[in-house]
Design brief:
Elements: E1 3-8, E2 11-16, H1 21-27, E3 51-54, E4 61-62, E5 73-75, H2 79-95, H3 102-111, E6 135-137, H4 147-152, E7 162-165, E8 172-175, H5 191-195, E9 201-203, H6 204-211, E10 221-226, E11 235-241, E12 244-249, H7 263-267
Parallel strand pairs: 1-5
Antiparallel strand pairs: 1-2, 3-4, 3-5, 6-9, 7-8, 10-11, 11-12
Length: about 280
């Protein structure tokens, strides 16, 4: 590994060869919006909210996958970058429900994105798919970030139960031949739910509490523990509200799980609080 010297917004910085612009920005405390990127997934370059300007480049580049180069001049807050990010956020907001995408809402406010200026927003307006007791699929909130597809595929589970089907406004995450989830190859690891940034994939426990107007994340505590089912040592984060576990996640930086779990770790906690 060799050191590379370049600049971010006029400030000279040093990074290691092979590091992405996004990684360098994070190390330098430069905030950059992301959607399809996650620390435990392979970048797929589909959302384009993390784009930055590289002096001399004809187009804006995705910071999540473009690696740093010696002498490179990176601009993260130029007018061109701000305009592009604003347009992407507006397009997303005009087509899907971002009410539970907290991170995107923050960035939309920062860039002054106004999806309502589009006269005829193209919303999917589909019924929520509830096909089991573990999690639901709400395509009205899906931004096609591919995170769930990657988590179901090579990056984690290797089940390949879901993929993007259809084109244009008809595109959505689907099982093969659109069969019901229990009839598909899904093993209910819930890793797709764990990486979803918008609530399109959601724990049934969370969905039911939201429907009842009783989802209160500000009152929840998160306790880290070790899964009790086997000796692998997966770390769990127990989200507790009103002294009851409401969902389970795993830290993305944990060396054993990298944020991914199996069905037991993700959903098998009801024995703690039998009804």
């Amino acid at each position: 590994m060799t050191d590379i010297t370049f600049s971010i917004d006029g400030r000279t910085v040093t990074a290691t060869s092979g590091q992405t612009i996004l990684g360098a920005c994070n190390n330098e405390g430069v905030e950059t919006p992301t959607l399809c990127w996650a620390p435990n997934l392979t970048p797929v370059n589909v959302c384009r909210v993390c784009v930055v300007e590289v002096v001399g480049s004809r187009t804006l580049v995705p910071s999540c996958s473009r690696t740093v180069e010696e002498g490179m001049e990176v601009l993260t807050d130029s007018e061109r970058v701000r305009h592009s990010r604003k347009m992407v956020l507006e397009f997303l907001g005009s087509g899907v429900d971002l009410s539970q995408a907290d991170g995107l809402q923050v960035w939309s406010e920062r860039y002054g994105a106004d999806p309502d200026r589009y006269v005829e927003p193209q919303k999917m307006d589909e019924e929520v798919k509830i096909q089991d007791n573990l999690y639901v699929r709400d395509y009205d909130k899906c931004v096609l970030c591919y995170k769930c597809v990657e988590a179901c595929g090579d990056d984690a589970q290797h089940t390949f139960a879901i993929a993007v089907a259809g084109r244009g406004f008809g595109a959505r995450i689907s099982t093969e031949f659109d069969v019901a989830l229990p009839e598909s190859a899904c093993v209910y690891c819930g890793n797709c739910v764990g990486v979803c940034p918008t609530g399109a994939l959601q724990f049934t426990t969370e969905f039911n509490l939201r429907q009842a107007g009783n989802w209160l994340p500000e009152t929840q505590s998160v306790t880290r523990t070790v899964c009790s089912y086997c000796g692998v040592g997966c770390n769990l984060e127990l989200h507790v509200q009103d002294e009851k576990i409401v969902k389970v996640t795993s830290p993305a930086d944990h060396s054993v799980t990298s944020g991914h779990l199996c069905i037991k770790g993700r959903f098998g906690w009801n024995y703690v609080q039998p009804s």
